[in-house]
Amino acid sequence: MDKKVLRERMRKKQQQLRRRKMMKLGGYILAVILVVVFIVKGVILPITKGISGKDADKPVQVEADADKTAETKGTEDEPAAEKKEEGEAVRMPLATVSHITKASDMTAGWHEDENGKWYQNYDRTYYAGGMREIDGKTYSFDDNGYIQTGWVSDGFDDLYFNDDGSYNPEKHKTRIALTFDDGPGQYTDQLLDCLEENNAHATFFMQGINVGEWESTVQRMVDIGCEIGNHSWNHPEVTLQGLSDDQVIEQIQKTDAALEKACGQKSTVARAPYGAAGDREFQLAQKPFFMWSLDTLDWKTMSTESTVDAVMNGDLTDGSIILMHDIHEPSVQAALQIIPQLVEKGYKLMTVSELAEAKDVELQYASYADFWDSSLAKGLVAGYNGPLLESESSEESSDEGSDISDGEEDYSDGSEEEYSDEGEDYSDGSEEY
Ligand code: NI
Q1: Gap from CA of 336 to ligand 1 centroid (Å)
Q2: Are strands 130-134 and 137-141 parallel, antiparallel or unpaired?
Q3: Among 277, 190, 186, 202, which residue's Cα sits nearest to residue 232?
Q4: Are residues 154 and 215 in the same domain?
Q5: First to last CA, the chain
Q6: From CA 95, how far away is CA 101, in angstroms rounded?
Q7: Which domain holds residue 359?
Q8: CATH of the domain at 336
């Protein structure tokens, strides 16, 4: 073997060694690559995918949140143009607006144009068609998104909005209760049409004997918010006071049964035939009884004209109760004129129970003729919970559990502040009752 051959062998051997080394290294590298691929594919990717899946919405969410946090209180999470509750304004997207100069590049908050004031939300919507609270005040928006002022109807209620558009809970219309006796009859439905058209309520004191023939009419009274009253079964000429206890109870209960059959409910209030009733009758009937403050004498005159005149020129003080009879055609004809005229003049026509509630009176088994402020303040109205004119209950005496609180006059919490301009001295700490 010469040197040449030996060198050649050595070279080949070294080549072999190098190749093995390379293969080993290649193997390592491959293994490392495989491991890396495995880790990336099997572990890291699923995790990042999961994260990125959540992340996809995040920038949008953050934007939306930023909008919401800047938004007025109480309006969160409401998609555009979706009504939340009755009477509440909806959010209308500004992009759809063409009838008003609502530019979407305007900032959120109040804006005013030639048609009035409107409110832009941070989500590029405006309020329309209802009420919304903004910065602690309630506003009413018309269908075009402009605030309303003056009287606005909210269902049966009439709400007053100041010139700046904010709701004024102190203001109310002059409230009057129309009452109709002796029906129901053939003219009653026409009267109900008129009440419904004028967003008005009335109380019907019905004779039980008439109910069976007009059951659907009675049901309709309930449907349109009128009140079901009991006027005895057949209007006994001897009056309820001329009847025995059992007979009085029968007159009331028989009528209630007929009413319940007609409309699913008994009477809530009563009026005695001829208005003749006292404590015995109130207790036997277990109902509040109603007299009236304005007698149209419609049953006597049988004149539409004089009945209209009696009301329109009568005492329409807030809290008045007007007596009419829907059993007579001239009376109903008169009512068809009276109702729209009173509404036009700004009166609010309600049931006697609604009137009582509006006047802070919890009805008792007693007699009621009116809910005038003057009567209330004099302590003449049973169940009245408001302030009194009399000084009989000073602030200190009310703490002592005085004996007047047990009787008919438990008005011990009444404050006299509203009547201090009468010039009387309601000296504090006075022990007089
Ligand atoms: Ni009668």
Answers
A1: 20
A2: antiparallel
A3: 277
A4: no
A5: 147
A6: 11
A7: 174-395
A8: 3.20.20.370
Predicted TM-score of the model (pTM): 0.69
Centroid of ligand 1 to alpha carbon of 231 (angstroms): 7
222 and 201, same structural domain? yes
Catalytic residue check, 325: yes
What's 424's DSSP letter? -
Determine the Cα–Cα distance for residues 394 and 430; give it in Å rounded to an integer. Answer: 7
Residues 136 and 284 in one domain: no
- Quote the CA–CA distance of 50 and 352 in Å, as a whole number: 66
CATH number of the domain enclosing 138? 2.10.270.10
Q: Are residues 139 and 238 in the same domain?
A: no
- CB contact at 8 A, 365 and 288: yes
Same domain, 221 and 142: no
Q: Are 72 and 135 in contact (CB under 8 A)?
A: yes
Among 111, 201, 325, 328, the active-site one is: 325
Copy the structure tokens of residue 53: 């899946």
Pairing of strands 116-120, 137-141: unpaired
Whose structure tokens read 């088994």?
365
pLDDT at 42: 56
Q: Which two tokens stand for residue 312?
A: 């329109």
Catalytic choice (123, 181, 182, 318): 181
Residues 312, 235 share a domain = yes
List pLDDT tens digits, range 278-306.
999 999 999 999 999 999 999 999 999 99
Structural domain total, the chain: 2
